[in-house]
What does this fold into?
Amino acid sequence: MNYLVLLRHGESEWNRENRFTGFTDVDLNEKGVAEAKRAGASLKDIRFDKVYTSTLKRAYKTAELACTEMGQNPPTVRHDDLRERDYGDLTGLNKDEMRKKFGEEQVHIWRRSYDVPPPGGESLKDVVARVQPYYQAHIAPDLAAGKNLLLAAHGNTLRAMLIILGERTAENINEAEIATGAPIVFEYADGRLKRKSA
It folds into this structure.
């Protein structure tokens, strides 16, 4: 039996301010630090062999805080392919202000559609296209080898992962709400997904 745990980073200051963050390297706020520690406490029964995370500090600090809370120090790999979706021209802007400017429906399309990118940015389809090859080359072989893995990343990175893992489709991915600092645990037996719990 082995595990793949998906963990969205704890709350950042821009999450709290309701801004589009994307590739901007915003740190965790106080609540986010507490969420990361709480996630670690909830995962202490799993001995992780490796941690995968993005190169953005809100993700890798969440992984570090969670591992410290678990009393573990597994090897950690950071990679740009695991970063959040690039929100392009919306980066740094307040979501409510953008709704007033462009309308609720347009902002919803930019945020949640599968294949419509925001101006100058990436769609979720684009994120899947960059995360999937990385998953196939690195994470999938570790899973197949029976390793316990923690993937600490971002809301849209993890939405992409749910599609890659066959848990969601392009049609129903919008229904997936991924809370900050809340682990999603996939349990594998003999290389096959046995159970998922959030």
Summary: Strands lie at 2-8, 50-53, 76-78, 149-153, 184-189, 192-197. The mean pLDDT is 95.
